């Protein structure tokens, strides 16, 4: 259990749908598992935070995977989440770091690059998938998710994401919000919201000040306008396991498994998402071969 959680809310009598998340411990877990350097921690943490909130929009056993590929030095960022507050993620090059940018912030845009796309694949159950993609705007990720919602899901949104890193590379604070205009919202509400968002304190500052997810939504939308619906605990969690990778080894085919037995005298698999390692002995591989025949 962690102290991280997501808040789901409505505002302006249901014209606005809002999510806000505190993800400090989940991002810390990713930082520890992947040894990310500060700029990479921010990029991965922002992506995981957005993915987690998008997961909270799903139902039941549905889940989604977000891939950000801007052809920058960090490589790809991959995160996935389910509807129950579980998230995991990794980046191609976790030891990516640059000096602070000209506004004194971690230079996520430089690490991610902006020559590419943000792609979302939703597993909506019964082998049915929804897939959407939009070009990256800046690689800063908040803007990129905002653009994704407008372009790919036709939902005007505002996405704010923030990750603060301590001098020792640990995560000081992480979180964010997604605010979405629902169909049929009044022009007046949309205009008011735009004005608020254009003038609001940067989300990283709100997180640094220790605001809870509820308080972040009150800050953005006005406390009197917000109706909190649900509060869901969240955490970094990976569903990998010994059996799963054994299945993957099976998929490599007989010849490959024989060479693992004869040349390597066993096999080791490492999970991209959580870095857990799984060992397979010669005899276990032999048993697998026998089952396959
Ligand atoms: Zn794993």
From TrEMBL:
<dbReference type="GO" id="GO:0051082">
    <property type="term" value="F:unfolded protein binding"/>
</dbReference>
<comment type="function">
    <text>Redox regulated molecular chaperone. Protects both thermally unfolding and oxidatively damaged proteins from irreversible aggregation. Plays an important role in the bacterial defense system toward oxidative stress.</text>
</comment>
<feature type="disulfide bond" description="Redox-active">
    <location>
        <begin position="271"/>
        <end position="274"/>
    </location>
</feature>
<keyword id="KW-0143">Chaperone</keyword>
<keyword id="KW-0862">Zinc</keyword>
<keyword id="KW-0346">Stress response</keyword>
<dbReference type="Pfam" id="PF01430">
    <property type="entry name" value="HSP33"/>
</dbReference>
<dbReference type="GO" id="GO:0005737">
    <property type="term" value="C:cytoplasm"/>
</dbReference>
<dbReference type="GO" id="GO:0042026">
    <property type="term" value="P:protein refolding"/>
</dbReference>
<dbReference type="InterPro" id="IPR016153">
    <property type="entry name" value="Heat_shock_Hsp33_N"/>
</dbReference>
<dbReference type="GO" id="GO:0044183">
    <property type="term" value="F:protein folding chaperone"/>
</dbReference>
<keyword id="KW-0676">Redox-active center</keyword>
<protein>
    <recommendedName>
        <fullName>33 kDa chaperonin</fullName>
    </recommendedName>
</protein>
<comment type="similarity">
    <text>Belongs to the HSP33 family.</text>
</comment>
<keyword id="KW-1015">Disulfide bond</keyword>
<feature type="disulfide bond" description="Redox-active">
    <location>
        <begin position="238"/>
        <end position="240"/>
    </location>
</feature>
<dbReference type="InterPro" id="IPR016154">
    <property type="entry name" value="Heat_shock_Hsp33_C"/>
</dbReference>
<dbReference type="InterPro" id="IPR000397">
    <property type="entry name" value="Heat_shock_Hsp33"/>
</dbReference>
<keyword id="KW-0963">Cytoplasm</keyword>
């Amino acid at each position: 259990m962690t102290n991280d959680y997501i808040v789901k809310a409505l505002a302006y009598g249901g014209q606005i749908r809002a999510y806000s998340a505190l993800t400090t411990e989940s991002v810390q877990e990713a930082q520890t598992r992947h040894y990310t350097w500060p700029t990479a921690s921010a990029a991965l943490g922002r992506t995981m935070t957005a993915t987690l909130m998008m997961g909270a929009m799903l139902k039941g056993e549905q889940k989604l995977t977000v891939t950000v590929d801007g052809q920058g030095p960090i490589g790809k960022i991959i995160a996935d989440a389910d509807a129950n507050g579980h998230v995991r993620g990794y980046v191609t090059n976790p030891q990516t770091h640059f000096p602070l940018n000209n506004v004194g912030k971690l230079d996520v845009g430089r690490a991610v690059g902006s020559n590419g796309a943000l792609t979302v694949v939703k597993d909506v159950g019964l082998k049915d998938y929804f897939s959407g993609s939009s070009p990256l705007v800046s690689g800063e990720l908040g803007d990129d998710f905002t653009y994704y919602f407008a372009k790919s899901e036709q939902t005007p949104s505002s996405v704010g994401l923030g990750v603060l890193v301590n001098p020792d590379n640990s995560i000081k604070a992480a979180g964010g919000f997604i605010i979405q205009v629902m169909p049929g919202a009044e022009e007046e509400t949309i205009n008011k919201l735009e004005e608020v968002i254009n003038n609001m304190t940067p989300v990283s500052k709100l997180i640094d000040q220790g605001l809870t997810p509820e308080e972040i939504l009150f800050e953005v939308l006005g406390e009197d306008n917000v109706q909190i619906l649900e509060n869901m605990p969240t955490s970094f969690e990976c569903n990998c396991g010994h059996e799963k990778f054994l299945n993957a080894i099976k998929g490599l085919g007989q010849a490959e498994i024989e060479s693992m037995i004869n040349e390597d005298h066993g096999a080791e698999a490492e999970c991209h998402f959580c870095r857990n390692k799984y060992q397979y002995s010669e005899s276990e591989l032999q048993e697998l071969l026998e089952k396959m025949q």
